[in-house]
């Protein structure tokens, strides 16, 4: 298993519910340059399926998950913005 990259951008959507985390990711993908690694922190259980599904639909690379950088609740979903 390869090591996860260091995120370029952290988005905190842990107090949001579906579909807000995916919308925040889509907005980031619109304004960030291709290749940017976004860590989307979410606590909504739906994010576990919504984020990888969004990546498949949009051609983004789902890199995996990690603990949020502040050690608090939720999961950080790592996504590389597509070209």
Structure characteristics:
83 residues; alpha+beta; Translation Initiation Factor IF3; four-stranded mixed sheet; 2 helices; 29% helix
Structural commentary:
This protein has two helices and four strands. The protein has one domain: TusA-like domain (Translation Initiation Factor IF3, 2-Layer Sandwich). The chain is globular and about 30 Å long. The chain has a four-stranded mixed sheet with strand order 1-2-4-3, with helices on one face. The mean pLDDT is 95. Helices cover 29% and strands 27% of the residues. The chain is α+β, with helices and mostly antiparallel strands and 83 residues long.
CATH-assigned homologous superfamily = TusA-like domain
Outline:
globular
Number of domains: 1
Gyration radius, in Å: 11 Å
What is the number of E strands?
Answer: 4
Summarize this structure briefly.
By secondary structure, the chain is α+β, with helices and mostly antiparallel strands. It is built from two helices and four strands.
């Amino acid at each position: 298993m390869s090591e996860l990259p260091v995120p370029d951008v952290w988005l905190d959507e842990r107090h949001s519910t579906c579909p807000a985390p995916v919308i925040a990711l889509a907005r980031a993908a619109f304004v960030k340059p291709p290749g940017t690694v976004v860590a989307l922190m979410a606590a909504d259980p739906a994010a576990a399926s919504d984020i990888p599904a969004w990546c498949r639909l949009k051609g983004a690379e789902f890199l995996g998950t990690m603990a949020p950088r502040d050690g608090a609740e939720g999961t950080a979903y790592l996504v590389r913005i597509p070209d």
